[in-house]
Sequence to fold (271 residues):
Amino acid sequence: MDEGELAARLSALGVGPGGFLLVHASLRAVGPVAGGGAAVLRALRTALGPDGTLVVPAFTAHNSDSSAAYRQRVRGLSEAQAAKVRAAMEPYDPLAMPSSGVGVLAELVRTAPGALRSAHPQASFAALGPRAAEVVRGHRPDCHFGEDSPPARLYERGARILMLGTGFDTCTAFHLAEYRVPEPPRRTYRCVVRDGAGGGHWWAYEDVVLDDGDFRALGADLERSGVVPVRTGRVGEAGCRVLGLATAVDFARDWLVRNRPAPVPACALRA
Fold:
């Protein structure tokens, strides 16, 4: 498949010109493309046109000792070995720190000329296009995916979601719904951030508990319901979906209220 055919298939799938598009992509699932990942990025920008803004997750769980990635990394290590791993973690730098666990396309967007990246030290997003700043600015460092984050800005602006060879388990917009349920549970997170002198220090903050373990089931119910229009098709070898972000988040919030256990009141925990 070449770049032109890829852009045509994206357009047929519903990636039209203008607006905002949040992309989760597996280039491996797409299969061979002449020009590789760079051609996929160009095809996306062609389909979006000059007025469209492309957004991707650019997460950095590798600078945290409270992340699942860290727990996996130190599994089986001695206490001394784990301490060495922790001591080697670098502070978050939005200009230089690579993303991790979000695919090749995310890194291509993050490093593209003109791309902007949000300030969150673990859950940043990168955006490319004329309205990129609207998406990434104001990302509060103690708010992964809530009201002071890029997903909320995308919700307000009528963004679409493209899952390019990925499933609903990767749909980060569903995390915004976790913030919008009544009294969401909270926990402590820790990561390395840059200090004023250019070095790093550990920082702990409290935020909503994030759990994507049921997102696949949530997405399956969303598709079955017909409440949220989902356009499906194939781009290369990859099954793909395009849907509206705001309607997906609204559906997810109601689904989470119905399907997740209610949080235990603090007074019950003290009893």
